Amino acid sequence: MNLNYCVNCSFPEIKLDLSFNEKDLCSACDAAEKKDKGIDWKSLKFDFKKITQLTSKPVVTRGGAGTPSHFTELISTNYNGALAAVSIYHFTQYAPQEVKNLE
């Protein structure tokens, strides 16, 4: 049996919910590529600032961080909320410890 492997992450096609496109890119890597190209990050940053200014309640952010520096940038704005991270660890080379050790 010949297995297909993702040309980006080398994950094999044995995972049930994984599919491959015509370029042999797995559906997870394909989704990550589309996310990076299709999101207007400057607009989202502006919207986020507006939301945090409208409420005195903590705002929980989830998703969107592509590098540990994105956490540093948010924290440096005196953000008074919670940070959650998942996809940065699945779709990038970063490990949780790298984010925990930020100064």
Short description, anyone?
With 103 residues, the chain is mainly α. It folds into two domains: 1-38, no CATH class; 39-100, no CATH class.
Please characterize this protein's 3D structure.
- This protein is mainly alpha-helical.
- It folds into two domains: 38 residues, no CATH class; 62 residues, no CATH class.
- Helix content is 43%, strand content 6%.
- The longest helix has 14 residues.
- The protein starts with 26 loop residues before the first helix and ends with a helix.
Tag the structure with descriptive keywords.
single chain; 103 residues; mainly alpha; 2 domains; two-stranded parallel sheet; 5 helices; 2 strands
Number of helices: 5
Any idea what the shape is? elongated
> Whole-Å distance between the termini?
49 Å
Question: Fraction of residues in helices?
Answer: 40-55%
Largest β-sheet summary? 2 strands, parallel
What is the spatial order of strands in the main beta sheet?
Answer: 1-2
Low-confidence runs of at least 5 consecutive residues: none
What order do the SSEs take from the amino end to the carboxyl end, as H and E?
HHEHEHH
The average pLDDT value, as a whole number, equals 78
Count the domains: 2
Give the number of DSSP strands.
2
In what range is the share of β-strand residues? 5-15%
Estimated structural class = mainly alpha
**Overall radius of gyration:** 17 Å
